[in-house]
Amino acid sequence: MWPAGPEVLISEGRVLGEALAHEGFTEEELLQALREHGVVGPDEVRLAVLEPDGTVSVIQNNDLKTGTRPHHRIKMARRG
Asked: DSSP E strands: which ranges in the chain?
């Protein structure tokens, strides 16, 4: 079952464990999604969101430039 709305999984480099548990997402699955975005670890992430369609959107700290709104999405193949 996909979430009713977006769920923040990482905020300012901090993994939100309660959100992961609520969505049935493991930390290993989150780290895999980050690697698919070319991110080494959560400390490089400003915001990671599980979208209603099951994709994970990631905004890296170095993505934020004045006047831009970066948005990277990867479809998750499996949900626990």
From this structure: 7-11, 14-15, 45-50, 55-60, 72-75
